[in-house]
Amino acid sequence: MSLSKPFVAGLVVLHAGLLVWAVMGFAEWFRLDVPWPHVANPLFPHGVLLAHWTSVLVTASLFLGGLALRWPATPTAVACGYAAMATVCLIETTTYLVHDARWLAMGLEYAAYIGIGWFLFRSTWTQAHFGGTGGLAG
Q: Is there a contact between 7 and 119 (Cβ–Cβ < 8 Å)?
């Protein structure tokens, strides 16, 4: 049995969770009276949270929509979204976070982006599903 299908199912669950998290974060960002415990880090300024929630919402939507529509540019679009999320993470980690595990958390986040990106660009399953290598020649 190929591990690609369970891995893709896990990515769908992950990105659906990110999408829900971003919608919850935007509800808080718009200062709505939400019935759940706050998901936004209170250390982050309003502008940083805008970049945070926007990058997460757009990237999760690109992954889920691209997967559903078999959009050939999905790997490239998701990689760009991950680059935006990684940039926001760098700003948050170097400027606002103070906990001892912040560097480990950032490293694990970056490792996840690299691993998922590798899968999206190089796996046989995604190349067949998207009809190529995400817009890359070769």
A: yes
Place of tokens 């998922």: 116
Check if the beta carbon of residue 62 is closer than 8 Å to that of residue 74.
Answer: yes
pTM above 0.90, yes or no: yes
Q: Give the span between the Cα atoms of 19 and 44, in whole angstroms.
A: 20
The full length of the chain comes to 138
Strand, coil or helix: 131: coil
* φ, ψ for residue 86, nearest 5 deg: -65, -35
Quote the CA–CA distance of 58 and 101 in Å, as a whole number: 27
CA distance 133 to 124: 9
Q: Yes or no: say if 136 and 121 are a contact pair by the CB < 8 Å rule.
A: yes
Give CA–CA dist 131/138, Å, rounded: 12
Using DSSP, state whether 99 is helix, strand or coil: coil
Chain segment 43-84, per-residue pLDDT in tens: 999 999 999 999 999 999 999 999 999 999 999 999 999 999
* Alpha-carbon span 28 to 58, nearest angstrom: 17
Residue the block writes with tokens 């999408």: 19
